[in-house]
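Good morning C.,

I know you're traveling, so I'll keep this short. The sequence:
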Amino acid sequence: MKKQNEYEAVSHDFDPVFDENSQVLILGTFPSVKSREHHFYYGHPQNRFWKVIARLTDSEVPQSIAEKKQLLLQHGIAIWDVIESCEIIGSSDSSIRNVVAADLNSLLSQCEIRKIYANGGTAKKLYERYSQKTTGREIIGLPSTSPANAAYSLDRLMEYWSVIKEECRW
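The tokens, ready to paste straight into the viewer:
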């Protein structure tokens, strides 16, 4: 049995969400333990990502994976993570090591992404370190929707995340 503070080698086991109409790409770091259990993005019940997206799009908070995908695609939002595989302790972004970056160019070549946003400072740093050279694209950092980012209320997160709506004009 794995100890709680032991590194685990893990790979991303679900696909990015996007289609040819995607205009905005939101990147996380790597799926949390809960997200890996649910096989979809932002699966921790306390993560505010889906609440933020619902507010941005004036929609109900989606519950099922199908509803989440539909909400994103309906509004031109793509999501993925910077990391394809790594060693990590639990869900701790600060423990990430031995990174293999996701092939973001495979997604970028299939749609018209105007802006790339990072869900949190670690996602931004990892993108700048492992992906920016190959994509040639800048990334805009936004405060993390993670429950670990308790300094940001949902309303405060919306102050920052609203740039997505302003810049994309759905």
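Safe travels,
E.
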